[in-house]
Amino acid sequence: MSTAAISNWSGSRTLAGTFLAPTALDDAAEAVARSTHVRVAGSRHSFNDVVDSAETLLSLEHLAYRHPRLAVPASGDAPPSSVEPQLDPTTGLVRVSAGTRYADLALYLHDRGRALPNFASLPHISIAGSVATATHGSGRGNPALSASLTSVELITADGSRRTLADDDPSFDGARVALGALGVVTAMTLRTVPAYDVAQSVYGPVPFGNVVDAFDEISGLGYSVSCFTTLRDDEFASIWVKRAGTELDGTWPAEVAGGPAMSEAFHPIPGVDPANATAQLGEPGPSWDRLPHFRADHMPSAGEEIQCEYLVPRPNAARALEAFRRLSEPLAGLVQVAEVRSIAADTAWMSPMYEQECLAFHFTLVRDTPRVAAALPHLEAAFGPLEGRPHWGKVTAADPARVRPLYPRRTDFLELALGLDPERKFSNDFVRRWVG
Questions:
Q1: Per-residue pLDDT, 9
Q2: Is residue 373 situated within a structural domain?
Q3: Would you give the DSSP letter of residue 79?
Q4: Contact 319, 387 (CB under 8 A)
Q5: How many beta carbons lie within 10 A of that of residue 284, not counting itself?
Q6: Percentage of residues in the chain with pLDDT exceeding 90?
Q7: Which residues contact 424 (CB under 8 A, 6 or more apart)?
Q8: Distance in angstroms (rounded) separating the CA atoms of residues 408 and 153
Q9: Do residues 341 and 320 make contact, with C-beta atoms less than 8 angstroms apart?
Q10: What is the predicted pLDDT for the residue at 6?
Q11: pLDDT digits (tens, 9 = 90+) for 172-189
């Protein structure tokens, strides 16, 4: 086990807690049982204090599956685990260790003719951490990644094991659990038959054209993302990803006045597109097209801070105009901002609970004081539109404003207290936002 302090993925903050990375599940259970306070650090793609611990900060990276094509060294002294997922060929359900990255699981499934329904922008993130924070991809028909979950296996406060499954009436409380129910050691997910995706990139597109035709644009493919730097009154690029029978149709020559690009493009204008997934309408496996970034390269820009608000779709037009007005207060801070659609889901603590949302995502420079000073402008823009901050990103939102937007919050708190009455798995973040 390692006890060195660790930072998050982008180096923007140090995670609080004594870091432990056990090499066996029994060791993890023992660490939980002897600790008075435990949180879990996944792939460390959070930008706030969601995983911070007053005592033990546990990592299950040595117990994660690593596909041979993507094998990378784990931190600490132990070699990477090679524990394989378990795929049921009859039901298509796959059981996987919680710390496994989406990219590794996707390749495992691809080798067996299966796939996941959707991906986030980054395939480098751990499955359990992504599910716990309601991380999502894009697409009007695609809910958050937690919607594929059918069971979770936990280490509880005394070190014993427990499984929660979707035949339990309270399971929707476990889909997006913010780490508050226990240490998730394995999960079972629904899969679908393997499918191809192709993506074409269009731009630049005048900002007003996107506002006027957003419903049409967001319906152009299985997944659609609109990118802008907010430095000009335009979207630098619109990424249209098509799947299945959509691939049989003809690609449009332009989208909202933006022509199809003839060369590969990075979401951040001017950055080498080598780490971006293949474009130009070239079909390929879904795991290698739905994410924006390649699994074997550094994701995004690296040194960054992220913020995101999820706004109910009925407020889309006003949210897009509010987004447009952020150009001045965010000047010099935005590397790129992205607008996406996410379908409704049933997870109690999901921002998309029973409502389709637009995601306004900001990749900001890694300058903590300047970003902190700008965050109230984002809250002023999206807060009045019932914007919910992403659970893993920075925000200046007032928890007192946000808590009432989750109608099942008290049910979730009751579930957490039932499983963890001493609140071993809660932290300041959970108490602040949930109770």
A1: 78
A2: yes
A3: P
A4: yes
A5: 13
A6: 81
A7: 32, 35, 36, 37, 38, 157
A8: 22
A9: no
A10: 84
A11: 999 999 999 999 999 999
When mean pLDDT is compared across 269-273, 280-284, 332-336, 368-372, the lowest value belongs to 269-273
62-85 burial string, b = 16+ CB within 10 Å, else e? bbbbbbeeeeeebebebebbebeb
Q: Is it the case that residue 29 has pLDDT exceeding 60? A: yes
Query: Is residue 203 a part of any domain in this protein?
Result: yes
pLDDT of residue 44: 83
Q: When comparing pLDDT for 46 and 387, which is higher? A: 387
Sort residue 206 into left (φ over 0), alpha (ψ -120 to 50) or beta: beta
For 278, list phi and psi in degrees, rounded to 5: -60, 140
Closest to 407 in 3D by CA, of 318, 346, 332: 346
Whether pLDDT at 120 is above 90:
no
Ranges assigned E (strand) in 345-411: 357-365, 388-389
Burial bucket for residue 285 (CB in 10 Å: 0-12, 13-18, 19+): middle
Residues 255 and 225 sit within 8 Å (Cβ to Cβ):
no
What local confidence, expressed as pLDDT, does residue 273 receive?
A: 86
Tell me the pairing of strands 334-342 and 223-228. antiparallel
Residue 1's pLDDT is what? Answer: 44
Is 349 a member of any domain? yes
Does residue 106 surpass a pLDDT of 70?
yes
The residue written with tokens 């960054």 in the block is 304
Q: How many helices (H) and strands (E) does the chain have?
A: 11, 22
CATH of the domain at 344: 3.30.70.2520
Mean pLDDT (the chain) is 92
Alpha-carbon distance of 245 to 130, in angstroms, equals 29
Instruction: Give the whole-angstrom CA distance, residue 247 versus residue 28.
Output: 46
Question: Does residue 110 contact residue 308 with C-beta atoms inside 8 Å?
Answer: no
Cα distance from N-terminal residue to C-terminal residue, the chain = 32
Q: Which residue has the tokens 């506002």?
A: 211
Range of the domain at 365: 196-395
Residue 34, C-beta contacts closer than 8 angstroms, at least 6 positions apart: none
Q: Could you give the number of structural domains in the chain?
A: 1
Q: How many CB atoms lie within 10 A of CB 179?
A: 27
Tokens of 359: 């995601």
What percentage of residues in the chain have a pLDDT greater than 70? 95
The answer to whether residue 305 is domain-embedded is yes
CA distance 44 to 33: 23
Q: Does residue 382 have a pLDDT over 80?
A: yes
